[in-house]
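Q: I'm writing up a methods section and want to include an example of the input and output format. Could you take the sequence below and give the corresponding predicted C-alpha cells, formatted cleanly so I can copy it straight into the document?
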Amino acid sequence: MTFPSGRVAIVCTLAISTATLATPALADDIDLSSNRSAPITGLAWDAETEEVITVDERGDILAVDADAGTSRPVTFTGQAESVQGLSMFEDLLYIGDVGDSEGSREFVTVYRVDPASRVTTYRAWDFRYPEGPRDAKALALSGRGRIYIVTDGEDPGIYRAGPQPSRTGVNQLERAADAPEGVTDAVFLEDGSTLMLRSATGVELVDASTWERGAVTTYVDAPPAESITTYGEDRMLVGDGDYLRDEPLPEGRTTVTPGPAAESTPAPSPSATPSEPPELTEEVIVETEPAVSRRGTVLALLGAGAVALLAGIVVFVVRD
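A: Here is the clean output for your methods example:
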C-alpha cells in the first residue's frame, strides 16, 4: 500500500509542532569569569541595552552583553574609596561609594554617570549617617529616584536620602528601618516600592512603604557576599562574580540549595513552629555551573519523543 503523501505531510507537521510547543523556556546563567579580574561588589541590569553592568570595589565598571558575552568599559573617573553597589534609574547609572569597613569616613558618596556615554563626566552627592560612620554594602534607587543605602555590621539599617539631595553640601541620611543581617546588595523591583535584599540567609522582599517583610527565598550553602539585580520580568540575577544565576523572584517561603541538585526543604508543621510562617513545598532548581547544561538533554528527549510519536502515527497510517 502506498503512503498517502498529503496525510503523511500533515502528520509530520503536527508532530514537529508538538515537539516545538513542548520545549520549555530554560534559564541561562551568565558567565563573567572572562570579563573581570577582581570580585564584583555590585550589579545592575540595563534593560535599554540588555547589558549586565558590574563594578568592583575600586570602581572599575564593565557592561556585559547578556547574549554575546562581550564586555565594554563604562567611563567613570570619580575617586572612589570603596564601591559597594550599583543602581539604574531612568537609563542612568548610580554608583555607591559607600563602603567603610574601618568606620573612618566622615561621609560617603553616590555618583551618577551615563553608562552609554564616552564622556568622562559625572554628578556626585555626599551623605553622612545620623549616628556617625557606618559600613554599607548596598545601594538602591526607588521608583521615584530616591537613594537608599543599606548598612552591615552592628545594628544594620536601611537609610534613605531626602527627595532632592544637594550636590554642594553633605546631606544627612534618615534611618528608615532595621535591615536583615549580612545584606550584601539590594535593588527595587519594577513596582518601585518593593525592595529586594540579598541577606546572609537568602533573598527577601520588603515593602518600602510599610517595611513589612514579604516573600523570602532561603539559600542553603550559597556563596557569601553575592550581588543581585532584577533581570527582565519576574527574574533576578544572583552571583558572587564569576557566574550569575538566573532565578525567579522570591514567592512565598521557599528554601533552595543553589546548584544542579537543588531541592526545596519540606515545609515545617505549623503546630511545631507556630511563630514562623509555613514554607512553600514547591521544588526550585537553580543551575550554577554553566558548563553543565540541561538544554541539550531536554531537546534530545523532546526530539526522541517526537520521532517516536511520528513513527507510531506513520505505522497507523500505513496499516490503515
